[in-house]
Amino acid sequence: MTEFDEPPEDSLDVEDDYDHDILLVAGSRPEVARLAPVARAFESVDRIRAVTIATGCDPMSVHEAYEALGVPVDVTVLLREPLGPNPANVAAVLMTRLDDLLVDLDPSAIMVHGGGMTAVVAAQVAFWRQIPVVHLQAGVATDDLLCPFPQEANRRVIGQLASLFLTTGGAALGSPIGPNSIPVGDTMAANPQPADLRFAGLVRRVRTRGTRLVVAGLDRPDSLGVLASLPELLEREPDIELVVFGRLAAHGAAHSLAVHDRAVVVRTVPASEMLGLITASTVLVSDDPELVADAPGLGTPAVLVDGPHVAQPGDSIRSILSPAVMDTVRQVLAVAPGPAPLPSDGLEALRVEQAVAWMFGLTPSPQLDSAQATNASDNSGSG
């Protein structure tokens, strides 16, 4: 179901087989990475309807991210006007569109992740409509209000508006959240592993052996200098593995990498595989601004080659002229410990469903009991 600029009056009607429904509102690809497993969990338990919403500054990229992870999109909120360059303009456009959506669908609750612009706007609009807000990855990520900017401040605002707070671990650092705080784990761990055996092997080595992965997406001819410097990086850093993709992967300068035993060179990486690679990488290097903008939300520092990027306080994106890129990459590698393994029992998304069911009064406990956890693990293993 897709919402266009002027949808028919009944175009957003949904079936009434459930007593409760919840909108999973995503405004970026990193948010989809956490909400897609939740959508699958709601579908598998089948006691609450989860309605997937693709919106944000680039709703079609969010729509495609949901589909890449095997989750159908119920509503894609297209924007009626171009977005301006400042956050106030973005928020104003999203606010009216999301308010219209909540009026049309009248959900039992909404769920947002993290502290992106879409999340804070959706939470604000839902609060005004007296619709409960569930905050996934609730709490404070850092002690610095400006780091990352503006996500940390947005996260704290949502913490004042939400009814249910789902955290990745125990008590959230310095958290201004309420008593309904439930640790569920990072739902991103429940996403499918890469299907390509080369990428799956890379991710496994990162998680089990401490291998560091550098992912380089290079399309523009003026990024050739970066491509040409990658063999030296492999020579200097014996624990580094490398994935190179993009138009320049077909360039002659990539030949020495294509035959290297610690490099994978491909023309394209499917969106479903990209998530796992970026999440597992120690640093992303790319001349694609949108890809670089997604990386911090997946926990990965990013270097934007020659890109137009306005630095913000606490920003984990570095915009570097091509000749200086590899110096910056080496600096990141010197200080970044690499992605920490995600301790996962595969039940993160089911814990989210259980907590929401408890909020709706459908179950006496917000926590999965041992029998439920065992049954869920058995079903996952048999699938």
TrEMBL record:
<comment type="similarity">
    <text>Belongs to the UDP-N-acetylglucosamine 2-epimerase family.</text>
</comment>
<feature type="domain" description="UDP-N-acetylglucosamine 2-epimerase">
    <location>
        <begin position="45"/>
        <end position="305"/>
    </location>
</feature>
<dbReference type="InterPro" id="IPR003331">
    <property type="entry name" value="UDP_GlcNAc_Epimerase_2_dom"/>
</dbReference>
<dbReference type="Pfam" id="PF02350">
    <property type="entry name" value="Epimerase_2"/>
</dbReference>
<dbReference type="InterPro" id="IPR029767">
    <property type="entry name" value="WecB-like"/>
</dbReference>
<keyword id="KW-0413">Isomerase</keyword>
<protein>
    <recommendedName>
        <fullName>UDP-N-acetylglucosamine 2-epimerase (non-hydrolyzing)</fullName>
        <ecNumber>5.1.3.14</ecNumber>
    </recommendedName>
</protein>
